[in-house]
Specification:
about 350 residues; mainly alpha; ABC transporter involved in vitamin B12 uptake, BtuC; 2 strands
Length: about 350
């Protein structure tokens, strides 16, 4: 019975469209990467650097620092974070069978936000040896721990007798988010002006603090989580028919739920820890792909990784050039681009706009 889903007749046009979309998104991602490396407040450009390398001219120190130490780690972080948020959104929408679900439903966002606020407001009161261990990575580390702690708590609350209830998880997630928001509000109230500024910029999200240290810290965890998520494609397809039907065709529903929740927590927790709060990628990307190529998660999840990375990199380019030489927080750009699409999704679901 486990092979039933693979044996279902495929729609040739839809499968061909999904494959064509995959290669099209891959090409678009390459162009976005080139634009990211080409764009910046300095006069250094990728084309200029490539020309000098072809001519055998040694790069200046400024060119090496800008390209290798600033733009390349920023690009790598954008690829990882965009893919993590988009794939996590697709997995959560498949798990909850709701196109408006996002990674925040497993408590990662609320926990990570509370962890970051705790680090920013109370970090100075920590013992010196602990500050020495974390250095300037205290806020990302605390955000990651907060995201994981909230996810594990939520999973514990929603699991009873070895079975996880997604409805209970949704309700518990709302309660946990409200509690985290209340504690965060207390901390914001007692914060000073400098801490409030740091809180504001972290909450809006940015790739400006990218470094190879952060990429190497978050990258392996995100890649492992993405690999686990890609393996859930057949299971999420079966879950769309209902839990009972999915179990009858050989899918271990409880195991799939556990893997999905842990993968989303790992990917989103690591992404939020290094980039701050970036919204709408996890909601908008999977829905757009379903409209373009259908709901098959075997193609949806890899395409979500490509489109999520592309959109975040392009949003980062816009953030860098919109008010150059200053820089907009990337969360503002994704909100401006994503909010109208999200509103259209809501109206479409209510039948207020044409499909």
């Amino acid at each position: 019975m486990a092979a039933v889903l693979e044996d279902l007749p495929a729609v040739p046009d839809r499968m061909a469209r999904a494959r064509a979309l995959h290669w099209g998104l891959a090409g678009l991602l390459v162009l976005a990467c080139i634009a990211s490396l080409e764009t910046g407040a300095t006069g250094v450009s990728l084309s200029g650097v490539a020309t000098r390398l072809v001519q055998g001219v040694e790069l200046t120190r400024t060119e090496r620092v800008v390209l290798y130490d600033i733009r390349l780690p920023r690009l790598a972080m954008g690829l990882l974070v965009g893919a993590a948020l988009a794939v996590s959104g697709a997995v959560m929408q498949g798990l909850f069978r709701n196109p408006l679900a996002d990674p925040g439903l497993v408590g990662v966002g609320a926990g990570a936000g509370l962890g970051a606020i705790l680090a920013i407001v109370l970090g100075a009161a920590l013992p010196g040896w602990l500050l020495g261990l974390t250095g300037n990575q205290l806020t990302p580390f605390a955000a990651f721990l907060g995201g994981w702690a909230s996810t594990l708590l939520l999973y514990r609350v929603s699991t009873r007798q070895g079975r996880t209830s997604v409805a209970t998880m949704l309700l518990a997630g709302i309660a946990l988010g409200a509690l985290a928001g209340a504690v965060s509000g207390i901390l914001v109230y007692v914060a000073d002006d400098r801490q409030l500024r740091d809180l504001t910029f972290w909450g809006l999200g940015s790739l400006a603090g990218a470094s190879w240290i952060k990429v190497l810290a978050a990258g392996p965890l995100i890649l492992l989580a993405l690999g686990a998520a890609f393996a859930l494609g057949r299971g999420l397809n079966g879950l769309a028919l209902g839990e009972a039907t999915a179990a009858h065709i050989g899918i271990d529903v409880q195991r799939m739920k556990s893997v999905a929740i842990l993968a989303v927590a790992a990917a989103t927790g690591a992404a939020v820890a290094v980039s701050g709060g970036i919204g709408f990628i996890g909601i908008v990307v999977p829905h757009l792909l379903r409209l373009a190529s259908g709901p098959d998660h075997r193609t949806l999840l890899p395409n979500a990784a490509l489109l999520g990375a592309t959109l975040l990199i392009l949003a980062d380019v816009i953030a860098r050039v919109a008010i150059a030489p200053a820089e907009l927080p990337i969360g503002i750009v994704t909100a401006i681009l994503g909010a109208p699409v999200f509103l259209w999704i809501l109206l479409k679901r209510r039948g207020l706009v044409a499909p």
